[in-house]
Amino acid sequence: MEKESQRVLAELFEHGLLLEIDARLPNVCALVVGEPVRGSWWAHPRSYEIFRVNCALADHPDVLVAKLVSGKITYVHRSLWPAIIAAGRAREAPQAGNLSSDARKLLARVEKAPVLPDRALAKAASELEKLLLVSSEQFHTESGAHARRLESWESWSKRTGFIAPAMTGPQARRKLEEVLDSLNRRFQARGRLPWQP
User: Fold this and answer.
1) pLDDT digits (tens, 9 = 90+) for 95-137
2) Which pLDDT band, with edges at 50, 70 and 90, does 158 fall under?
3) HSE value, Cβ hemisphere, 13 Å, CA-based, for 120
4) What is the pLDDT of residue 139?
5) Cα distance between residue 5 and residue 52, in whole Å
6) Residues 73, 67 contacting (CB under 8 angstroms)
7) What is the distance between the alpha carbons of residues 168 and 105, in angstroms, rounded to a whole number?
8) How far apart are CA 169 and CA 21, in angstroms?
9) 106, 151 Cβ separation under 8 angstroms
10) Backbone dihedral angles phi then psi of residue 67, each to the nearest 5 degrees
11) This model's pTM is above 0.85
């Protein structure tokens, strides 16, 4: 792993969570370019470097990618995986209480087997992803198209071999809230988790 990626990974290990982009919270874009990036990072002159570091993080065995903080792509260190999995499995209100009909149907499908949602299911897939109810992985198909795979946290755990210690939904949410509250205070930010208003 190149030097820049190692530096960003060290920041993730320190904080537990690292966003892809944000105005205040620790994030890959700001770490790579040395200042907050406004707008789309794809338009930044150093977008290629940002992309390389994002890919290195996503491929690292100690990193999980989820739309966790404020609905944004968030890199999560392995130390917080038990809380992520327990929170996702808990399915407690308000996290899963107001799902659309399409999202409920898609969730039922994902519980049986991983799903590659098409455009018709994109909105429902995003709803499940942002509520942490499923694991979502972005990838490129053989044709080069961008796609995502949704799978249950049970399926993800089996596929990755990660055995999470027992943790209740409330314990998991509290753990993640403590980490994010600390970051919000430290960086004068307002990040929120899927179940927070």
Assistant:
1) 667 899 999 999 999 999 999 988 899 999 999 999 999 999 9
2) very high
3) 4
4) 78
5) 8
6) yes
7) 25
8) 27
9) no
10) -90, 80
11) yes
